[in-house]
Every structure is written in structure tokens, then in C-alpha cells.
Design goal:
Elements: H1 2-6, E1 11-17, E2 20-25, H2 31-36, H3 38-57, E3 60-66, E4 75-81
């Protein structure tokens, strides 16, 4: 969460359990360009998050069920442990 705060995302942790965690961003550092190119920007953002999480915790699956880019008022990030 410290790194996400430093990136300017204004994160809020929503849940943590043995399978993963979720958080929401109340600020999008890519907001303007994400409105024009939501698929590209969200894919890029997921790639960045994958790199951060893999470096810190190992492989995981990341989904964004809510996104600024498609009209939601937050970006919600769900991180699930990678199942082999």
C-alpha cells in the first residue's frame, strides 16, 4: 500500500485473506488517457501491478472489476494467489 500511495493512487485496502487481497484506488494517474484508450491503459496498469506483486509476493492473478476508464468512480483491484 505504501508503494501505491507513493504512485499517487490514493489506495484503500478492502480485504485480505488466505487467497489474496483487494484494494481500491480513489485516484487514477492515467485518468485522461484511460478514457480514450481503456483497454490499452488498463492492460498496461495490470502489467505494472503484476510486476510489483510478483516481485513482492510471487505470481498472482489480477482483475479490475471496477475501473475509472469505463465510468466507475473507483478502480478496484482484486489479487488472487496463483493456483498451480
Amino acid at each position: 500500500m505504501r508503494i501505491l500511495t507513493q504512485l499517487g493512487l490514493d489506495p484503500e485496502l478492502l480485504s485480505v485473506d488466505e487467497n489474496g487481497f483487494s484494494w481500491q484506488a480513489r485516484n487514477c494517474i492515467f485518468y485522461e488517457v484511460s478514457k480514450k484508450y481503456p483497454y490499452i491503459v488498463c492492460s498496461l496498469h495490470i502489467g505494472i501491478l503484476n510486476g510489483l506483486i510478483e516481485h513482492a509476493l510471487g505470481k498472482a492473478k489480477i482483475v479490475l472489476p471496477k475501473r475509472f476508464a469505463v465510468g466507475d468512480n473507483i478502480c478496484q483491484v482484486v489479487v488472487k494467489k496463483f493456483e498451480y
